[in-house]
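QA checklist item 7 of 12: single-chain prediction sanity check.
[x] sequence parsed
[x] length recorded as 372
[x] structure emitted
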Amino acid sequence: MKTKIILSLGICAIFFMLSCQNKGNSGKDSASDTTNVATTVKALRPIGAEPVWAPGIKPEMLAVIEKLESYKDQPIPELTAVEARKNHTPTDAVKDLMAEHNMVAPKMKVDTMGKEIPVSGGTIHARIYTPQGGNGPYPVIVYYHGGGFVIANVDVYDASAKALADQVGAVVVSVAYRLAPEHKFPTAHNDAYAAYDWVVKNAASIMGDPKLIAVAGESAGGNLAVSTAIMARDNKIMMPTAILAVYPVAGANMMTESYVKNAGAIPLNKAMMEWFVKNYLNNMDEAKDPRINLVAANLKGLSPTTIITAEFDPLQSEGMLLATKLKAAGSSVDSKNYDGVTHEFFGMGAVVPEARDAMGYAVKQLKKAFNK
């Protein structure tokens, strides 16, 4: 596995999520009963003192960061995209910590399968998570992973997608949109919209309810979720039932309060965000495009939106500003910031208590939108 980080052009997943590796489709889409949250959660403790850049960081979060740093991977800004995809990810750190501490995670009551979705110029892969024990139709969540539009994949953000399917009781379609620099802006955005459009037209074929379709994502994926909703509005197709954006890439200003405060944070920092932007965009002027710079987009008429942010994250300020802008545009918005945690924390429910709380909050919001 490797690099799971996001972009402020996160975009975690994906989750987020990070210093990631792109293993692409692992060929393991057909499966049952996989894991996310430990049955008996043990309290992890870090080895050393809290870092200067993260005063008050939660001990479990710091344990993950220490594990991630222990791999001694070369910093992403010093690598090519292909090399960066081979780095360890926060997901690797969580899994290794669980193995070292004999932490057992329960099986999620979901089945998975792979699906190829047509897009302009070819097809993209999607991993579909379906609740077990019923015939549907289930609500559907179209989920976009993080990684700054450059790294990570559906494997790296598997925990988030799986937990959403299990806890919401929904079909989750995790979209493997094409990555940069091989596929520059706006390819990821166009792929994200094409996947949503496909789900709107084909929900019944995957045991989904075509009237109940949400979009969700982490970091770069959070940006794609909001952008897809805007494109659905502008193209006059069915609007998403709800939007979930977890520490989304939402602005073009790298001098915000959180960028300054978290310039040297881990697993996402300012230098990495600059690297993501350079790899995804054709030129720096595109950073002002409303598909990237969501805080300057027309946000009127969007679906009820939930935004989650983290304290030690360069993207915190723009995520909060996006919530403010959505409210000003008349949209229904609910937001929550989590102190003591970093970018990519959302999918770490197996070891980080705040991640379990954030997942529970997201699940509650989605269930409310689906009238469940």
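[x] summary fact logged: The longest helix spans residues 353-370.
[ ] second reviewer sign-off
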